[in-house]
Amino acid sequence: MSSQFRQVASAAAPSEVTRVTRGASLEASDSGSTPARLPRRSTGRGVLKIAAFFILVGAIAVVLNAAVNFGLKRITVSKFGALNQVMSGQVNAEILISGSSRALSHYDPRILQNLTGRSAYNIGQNASQIDFELVFLKTYLDHAAKKPGLVIQNLDLFSFETTKKSELYDPGLYIPYLDDSNLYQFIQQKEPDAWKCRYLPLYGYAVEDMRFTWVWGLLRCAGVQGPEDYFQGFNPRRATWNADFDSFRAGNLSGVSYRIEPEGVKCLEDLISLCQKNGIQIILVYSPEYYEMQKLERNRKEIMEKFHEVSEQFKVPLWDYSGSPISSQQNYFNNSEHLNGEGAEVFSQDLAQRLVTEFPQWAVRSATADAGSGSSPVHGAKQGEEAMPGPDVFRTAGKTTESEAPR
Amino acid sequence: MLFNSLEFAVFFPVVCCLYFATPHRARLPLLLVASCAFYMAFIPAYILILFVTIAIDYFAGIRIENTEGRARKTWLIVSILSTCMVLFVFKYFDFFTGNFVGLAHLVGWSLPKPVVHIILPIGLSFHTFQSLSYVIEVYYGRQKAEHNFIPYATYVMFFPQLVAGPIERPQNLLHQFYEQHEFDYDRITAGLKRMAWGFFKKLVVADRLALYVNDVYAAPRNFNGLQITLATFFFAYQIYCDFSGYSDIALGAAQVLGFKLMENFNTPYYSRSISEFWHRWHISLSTWFRDYLYIPMGGSRAGLPRWVLAIMVTFTVSGLWHGANWTYVAWGALNGVYLLVGVATKNFRDRFYGVVGLGKDNFARRCVAVGTTFALTLGAWVLFRARNLNDAGYILTHWFSHWNFSTIKTPQFQLKYFPAAIAGLIALEAIQLLQPKFSFAPRFARSPIFLRWAVYMAVVFSVILFGVFRQTQFIYFQF
C-alpha cells in the first residue's frame, strides 16, 4: 500500500513537473541560490489550484443538493409522494387520519371514503411519537387549503412518550422541507445538527440519512420513480405474521411498560385543542393490537385510564379496539402491533361502519356504497360538494365505547 | 476530534493555512496548540494526564542522558513505571482487580471489588508507547534527549497521529519538527489524495460493514451460521479499513504539513504466513514490541525455549495492549501459537509442496498460503471482536450451521446496503491488487486535468454519498 501511495504521490502531470522543478527551486531560493519571485508564483498557483478544486467540490455539492431536493419534492409515489402532497397543500381531505406507523398501516382511507362518501387521507408517519404527530398535524393544517372536518387520531400505548434526542426516524424524508418553520423547529429540538442539514449542502443526506434517500431524488430528476405503495397516504403491510413477537416475548418475559411523560400528555391535549380551535371534530381511536401483546404490557391499564381521562376532559370520543375480535386473530397481523393488509381492510370497514352508524350526519352516502366509487381527496376532488358536519355531529363526545372481544 | 467530523473538516484547513502562513519559528507552537485543541475536543481535562506523562518523560530523558550507571537505569525505570502506571490506572485497574477478586473468591476469600468508573483517555496506549519509545531510545543512546520542551511535547501530541498512531520513534519524527516545510503543491496534493483514500476505506467500507458486524456480534445466538460467517468476514475488512484508513488519513494529513510518518500497513491480507502478516499489520506496534520486548527477551537467538517464551509473551502482551479483556489476551496468544506452529511446520509444508510440484512462486501455492493465512486470521478476529469468550466459542462453533440465505440481512443492515458494501470491497481490492501491477498513477497523472479532476470529484462524492458518517468512532481509538 505504501509503495502505491508513494507512486501516487510522486506521479505528476507534465504541467506539474514544471511545478516540481519550481518547488525544488523554492527550497533552493530560500537558501539564496535562485531568484525569489519564481517560487512565490508557483506557490500562489498551487494555492489557487487547490482552492479552485475545493470551490468546485462545494459548487457541485450545492448543485447536487438542489437536484436531490428538487427530485424528492417531485416524487408522486411512496412515502415521498404522500409527504409531498401534504406539504404542497394538495390533500384537503374531509377525514384525516393521524398517528404513528399503526395509523399509517391500519386505516385505509379508500374504504372510509367509499363508506362515508367523504374524502379521506392518512398522514400517519412511521415511528412517530405524539409530539411529532402534533407538529405534523399543525404543518398539514398550515398548508391545506381546506381544513378537514374530522381527524381520527390513532393512539398507541407509547402515545404519552415523546421523541428522544437524535431519535427522529427517517430524517432524510424531511430534509427537503426544512424550510417549513413547524418541521424545522421540531427537528432542530430533536436533532441539534438540523441546521447543518438545512444549510450545508448534502450534509443531511450524507450524515443524517442512512437510507440513500438522495438516490431517489436523483432518480426522480432522471424521470424514474419507485413503485407505489402508498394509497391516499395509507401504507398497507403485505407481510404475514412473522416471528418478531415470539423473539420479543422471549426477550421480555416479565413484560414491558411505557412511560407517561407529562410532556407527552400535554402534546395529546394540545393536539385535541388544536383540532377543536379549528372547528375540527376529533375521535381518538385505539386500533387493534394483538391480544397476547396486551398481556405483556404491564401498565396498560394505567395508560388506558389516562386516555379515558383525556377523552372525558376534552369531551371527545375514544374508541378502543383492544377488545375487538380483530385483536385476537393472528392472521390479521404482521406483528403484535401492526395489522397486515387484510387486517387493515377488516378494521377500516369496521371503523367506517361505526362512523356511519354512530354519526349518520357524517355520512354522505349509505354504508353500502359501492367500493371504488369514492372520490380522491387529492387535487381538490370532492371539495365542498357536501356541507361539512358541524361540531355537534359528535354529540356523544366524551362517551367511550369498547368492542368486546373473546380473549 | 474525529477525522470524519465536520469539526475536523474546518480544523484541518485552518491549521494548514495558519501553518504555511506563519514564519518557521512560530510553526511549532502553532502545531502544539492545534494538537491540544484536537485532543481537548474529546475530554478537555484529560489533556492534564497527557501533560503529566509528557513532563515525566521529558525530564526523565534529560536525566537519563546526563547520568551514568545505576542512576541512568533508575531514571529509565522511574519513567517507564510512572508512564505505565497512568496506563494501568485508566485501562487495566478494573480488569486486574476484577480478576484478582475472582481468583480470591475461588480459594474462599471474599473480597469487595474496587471499581473505578473512569473513562479511558482516548488513544492513551498510543501516546504512552510513543513516550516510552523516546526514553528507551535515549537510554540506549540511539537518540539525544530533547532539551526543548515544545518540540518534545509536539512529538508526543502531534495531532495527526495522537490518538491512533502510527506509534512513532523519536529518530523518525522528532528532528522533523526542526525542519522547514515549505508549501509544496505535489506533496500537499499527494497528502490530500492519501487522506481521501483513507476516508474511502473508513467511511465507505469499514463503517458500512460495521452495521452488520455490530448487529451479529451483539447477540450472535440470534443469527444463523451464514450471518455469523459473513459478519466475521466483514469484520476482517472493517477493522483493516478502519485502522488502515485512519493511518492513511494520519499519514496524509502529516504529509500535507510536510511530515513523513512511518507506514503502518502493507496489504496484510495478502500475507502468506502469520509471520508475514505481522510484518504487514500495524507495523508501528509490531516493531515496537519487537524492539522493546521481544529482542530484550532474547529474540530468536536465545535458544528454543526462550524463543518460544519470547514469542508467547510478546503476543500475549500485545493482545492485552489492545484491551483489558480476556478476549484480547486470547487473541494475542492465539496469534503466538499460530506463529509457532507455522515455524514448526514450515519444513513439512515446503516438502509437501515440493512433492505435489508447487514451486515457491507457484500461483496456486501462493493462493493456498494466502487463503490459509486469511482463514486463520478470521478465526483470531472472532476472539478480538466477541464481547466475551463464551460468545467467541459460540461463533467459532457455528460458522457452518443453518445457513439460510433468505435471512441474510440484520436489523441495522438492510438488503439495499449489500450492493454498496460489496462494491466498496471490490473497489478496495481492485485498487490494492491492480495498482502495483499496472501502475495507474503515473499514467493517470499524464492525463488531462479535466479527466483527473473528474475522477477526484467522483472519489470525493462517492465518499460523501456512500459513506456512513454516524458510525463515527475509529475502532483503535478505544485502545
How much of the sequence lies in strands of chain B comes to: under 5%
Distance between the termini of chain B: 16 Å
> For the report, how would you describe the main beta sheet of chain B?
none
CATH class of the largest domain in chain A: Alpha Beta
Can you count the helices of chain B?
19
Number of domains of chain A: 2
CATH architecture assignment of the largest domain in chain A: 3-Layer(aba) Sandwich
Helical percentage of chain B: 55-70%
Oligomer classification: heterodimer
Mean pLDDT of chain B comes to 88
Beta content of chain A comes to 5-15%
Distance between the termini of chain A: 66 Å
- The number of strands of chain B is 0
Give the helices and strands of chain B as they follow along the chain. Answer: HHHHHHHHHHHHHHHHHHH
> What is the 3D form of chain B?
globular
Fraction of residues in H or I helices of chain A: 40-55%
Task: Please provide a written account of the structure.
By secondary structure, chain A is mainly alpha-helical. Chain A has two domains: 15-61; 93-170 and 229-402, SGNH hydrolase (Rossmann fold). In chain A, 48% of the residues lie in helices and 6% in strands. Chain A has helices at 2-10, 14-30, 37-73, 78-87, 101-106, 109-116, 130-143, 181-190, 194-199, 203-208, 213-221, 244-251, 262-277, 291-296, 300-314, 341-358; strands at residues 95-98, 120-122, 150-154, 281-286, 318-320, 400-402. In chain A, strands 2-1-3-4-5-6 form a six-stranded parallel sheet. In chain A, α2 (14-30) packs across α3 and α6 runs parallel beside α16. Chain B is mainly alpha-helical. Chain B is 69% helix and 0% strand.
